[in-house]
Amino acid sequence: MALFLLTVTEKTPANINRTERVIAYMIVSTIALTIVAIIAIIIAAGTSVDTSAGVWPVITILPMIGLPAAIILIITLVASSAIRRSRAARDGNE
């Protein structure tokens, strides 16, 4: 019976701080809410619902606000991650 030496490599978890995590959750929730609004608009158009009253004007405008907001949040996340990595590389804590 042969014995094999197994080496376990330690995987270091991604060093992400609380701000980046919050921004990532904001991105996911904004995109998900926008997709739900788009699906609701498509279903409403298919069933000939009056979209000029009630909550429908908000649902109709939500994708026009949500997608640009998500893009801005993505840019913010990339910038904050780049700043954090450059500071870590400068300090030698990579």
Question: Over all CA atoms, what is the radius of gyration?
Answer: 22 Å
Distance between the termini: 42 Å
| Strand coverage percent | under 5%
Number of DSSP helical runs: 2
Report the major sheet.
Answer: none
Give the structural class.
mainly alpha
**What's the pLDDT, averaged over the residues?**
85
Poorly predicted regions: none
Number of strands: 0
Helical content band = 55-70%
- Tally of domains: 1
Shape: rod-shaped
Order of helices and strands: HH
Structure description:
With 94 residues, the protein is mainly alpha-helical. The chain has one domain. It has two helices and no strands. Helix 1 (18-46) runs antiparallel to helix 2 (56-91). It is rod-shaped, with a radius of gyration of 22 Å. The relative contact order is 0.13. The model has no long low-confidence stretch (mean pLDDT 85).
